[in-house]
């Protein structure tokens, strides 16, 4: 059974991390104030991340003292880190593909508008940029397959 801290603790952390961004999204902030709020949000996120890592390391030490032999990684910290690695490979490749498409697509549209015969060549570069996301997804599938 979950305790109240286990239920409401993550919600409190999410609320604290999200609070500085609300005025920025509502448009009631000038540039100097927005910079302060973004730095505050990044600082709160870093503090929350460090706190979670400290609590997880404390839990790892506690579990390591009580375990004798581990025959598989099902339900262990290694499996959790494997899932994090899969998520990072997918997210990083998707972000990189987004940046690549953001750079390649306008250039492709400009090349096509000047010479319509450049359509095939221009679309190859956009498709190559999208391939980065597919490769990251493939790597995460391989990582999850090993778990």
The rounded Rg comes to 22 Å
Strand count: 0
Q: CA-to-CA gap between the ends?
A: 27 Å
Assigned CATH superfamily of the largest domain: F1F0 ATP synthase subunit C
The H/E string reads: HHHHH
Average pLDDT reading: 78
Q: Per DSSP, what share of the residues sits in E-state strands of 2 or more residues?
A: under 5%
Principal-axes shape call: flat
Can you tell me the number of structural domains?
A: 2
What proportion of the residues is helical, as a percent range? over 70%
Q: CATH architecture of the largest domain, please?
A: Up-down Bundle
Q: How many H/I helical runs? A: 5
Structure class: mainly alpha
Low-confidence region ranges: none
> How many strands, which pairing sense, and closed or not: the largest β-sheet?
none
CATH topology of the largest domain: F1FO ATP Synthase
Give a structural overview.
This protein is mainly α and 147 residues long. The protein has 2 domains: 1-68; 72-147, Up-down Bundle (F1FO ATP Synthase), CATH 1.20.20.10. It has helices at residues 4-18, 22-26, 31-66, 77-114, 119-146. Helix 1 (4-18) runs antiparallel to helix 3 (31-66) and helix 4 (77-114) runs antiparallel to helix 5 (119-146). The longest helix is centred in the middle third of the chain and has 38 residues, at 77-114. The mean pLDDT is 78.
């Amino acid at each position: 059974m979950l305790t109240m801290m286990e239920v409401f603790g993550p919600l409190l952390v999410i609320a604290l991390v999200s609070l500085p961004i609300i005025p920025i999204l509502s448009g009631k902030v000038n540039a100097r104030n927005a910079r302060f709020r973004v730095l505050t949000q990044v600082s709160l996120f870093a503090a929350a991340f460090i706190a979670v890592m400290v609590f997880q390391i404390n839990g790892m030490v506690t579990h390591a003292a009580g375990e004798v032999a581990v025959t598989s990684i099902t339900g262990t910290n290694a499996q959790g880190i494997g899932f994090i690695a899969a998520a990072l490979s997918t997210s990083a490749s998707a972000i990189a593909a987004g940046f690549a498409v953001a750079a390649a697509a306008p250039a492709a549209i400009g090349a096509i508008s000047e010479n319509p015969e450049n359509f095939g060549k221009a679309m190859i570069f956009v498709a190559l940029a999208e391939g980065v996301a597919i490769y990251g997804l493939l790597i995460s599938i391989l990582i999850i397959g090993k778990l």
